Amino acid sequence: MKGISLFLLLLSSSDVCFGFGTTIWKMREKIEQHKEKVFNEKLNQLGSPPPLKEHYIEQPMDHFDPAVKVTYQQRYWVNDAFWHDRLHGPVFLFIGGEGPLSARAAGEGEHVKLAETYGALVFAVEHRYYGNSINKDGLQLENLQYLSSQQALADLAAFHSFAVRTYNMSDQNRWISFGGSYPGSLSAWFRLKYPHLVYGAIASSAPVEALTNFEAYNEVVAASLSDPIVNGSKQCADSIRNAFETIDFLLAAKQYTKLGKDFKSCNDISQSEQDVNQLVSNLAGIFMGVVQYNDEGSELTITSVCQIMTATKDPYVNLMKLNSVRIKPGKKCAYNSWNMSIEQLRNTTVDPASFTGAMRQWIYQTCTQFGYYQSCDANTSCLFSSHMDLQSDLDICDIVYGIPNDEVYKRVAFTNAYYGSNQPKGTRIVFVNGSIDPWHALSVLKSQGTTETAIYIQGTAHCANMGEDKPGDLPQLTQARKDISHQVLQWLQEGKYEVDQKLHFKPMY
Q1: CA torsion 16→19→20→23, rounded to 10°?
Q2: Secondary structure (3-state) at 237
Q3: Are 3 and 319 within 8 A, CB to CB?
Q4: Do 288 and 24 touch, CB atoms closer than 8 A?
Q5: CA distance 111 to 118
Q6: Which stretches of 13-109 are DSSP H helices?
Q7: For 438-495, what is each residue's pLDDT tens digit?
Q8: Exposed/middle/buried for 127, CB within 10 Å: 0-12, 13-18, 19+?
Q9: Which of 115, 181, 260, 320 is most enclosed, with most CB atoms within 10 A?
Q10: What is residue 242's predicted lDDT score, i.e. its pLDDT?
Q11: Residue-wise pLDDT tens digits, 180-227
């Protein structure tokens, strides 16, 4: 049994470790905090312009059953700074995902730069059940049934109708959606399922293929840690593999006390094999997080991790040193407790301001729709412990949500049947992926035709294209943003041509 492996955009601000995902959540949390700080500093330098205000729209809890009368308030932001031609100007929709949004979602990023270039109105819409877009009793098990990608897309459709009425829009205002990771999938699916509402979609790092046993995640991690383009090396990957082989040897010898001491566990991991595997999974999470968010603002990169892992001839000692990065400053240890993990996942108290408060919701979505469980099976190139198996993730679905193993497989299969997996057969969709990002293994990597295209960026990590240009960007990343901009321009020109044709069409009698 391994620890709880979860979709890796969630964050944790507590000292409790939730499988190998926790390390990544903490990395992402620091990255988001850094980006928020930089964004606010930029606003101050510009003379403290008025902040973007948050707004709310009332949404049905169930769009598909009118007998359900419950509603919730969905949060969104508007940026109209560039929308000068309100009659013809486009609308860019930034789609939120499994965590809270902030005004930054409508204030900066690739989509905002494109809005400035093409005179677009920007909306940023928070996903139901995350951030402030959740009722106080939303985390009760009986209420989680309304949390799904289908309901989220219906929210976007209802928001579209609301915005058209509120801003007096017409079909001359073409909508283009943007999203990264799970919201990247939503962006593609919004175009796929509601093509009459959104004219085109940019889907960055979008894992559109649902998969229960996501073995390829750690295979990409292994390849990325070996890739010279990001200063990885075979020596680095071999050192990591050797360190985990030593851990597996100590596990087989039941050297729990030594492992707990060497890797600074607050709790006595000898009491439970699940706790031991929590530790193993958290150690693996250091590498998984560094690869996924390489050069995205984390204090660790593939370069620095490989330097540490090759600093001495003892890989185990090198890993002990690296482990200190997941221990909070001022803390002497970290918890690796299965029971504490389960209890927090069962917590139904809504905490809208934190990403930690999103764990219960997101894991529910993985159990009911997506899977995405990153295993380390023996027949793969995974560098980590073979104790990181699939079954423990499936156990979470059953223990916390009452969803049995076979039901998870069935629901994942339905998701692929409903959306088309990695061959969605859509139009005007651009899938953008980076070679270093492990999630590219579940996305669309080759163009499916002239109107469903793929951009594959060598040497970049998760959602790298969604940031604004900065010094030091790889040339291929800069070119990818130019290609995306060109595609957006082409869509807008096509949309204008269609409207002009319709306006000037004269039927023959």
Answers
A1: -10
A2: helix
A3: no
A4: yes
A5: 10
A6: 21-45, 104-107
A7: 999 999 999 998 999 999 999 999 999 999 999 999 999 999 999 999 999 999 999 9
A8: buried
A9: 115
A10: 98
A11: 999 999 999 999 999 999 999 999 999 999 999 999 999 999 999 999
Q: Tell me how crowded residue 171 is: count the other CB atoms within 10 A of its CB.
A: 13
Q: Which among 480, 475, 488, 446 is positioned nearest to 463, based on CA atoms?
A: 480
Residue 320 CB coordination number (10 Å): 16
Q: Which residue has the tokens 């071999």?
A: 238
Helix-, strand-, coil-residue percentages of the chain, each rounded to 5: 50, 10, 40
Q: Shortest CA distance to 6 belongs to which of 394, 347, 280?
A: 394
Cα dihedral 185, 190, 191, 193, rounded to 10, equals 110
Beta strands at 175-180 and 121-125: parallel, antiparallel or unpaired: unpaired
pTM of the model: 0.93
N residues, the chain: 509
Q: Mind telling me the catalytic residues?
A: 181, 437, 462
| 145 DSSP assignment | G
8 A C-beta contact, residue 199 and residue 174: yes
* Cα–Cα separations (whole angstroms), residue 279 to 60, 71, 238, 339, 416: 42, 41, 21, 13, 33
Amino acid code (one letter) for 112: V
Tokens at 100, concatenated: 């809270």
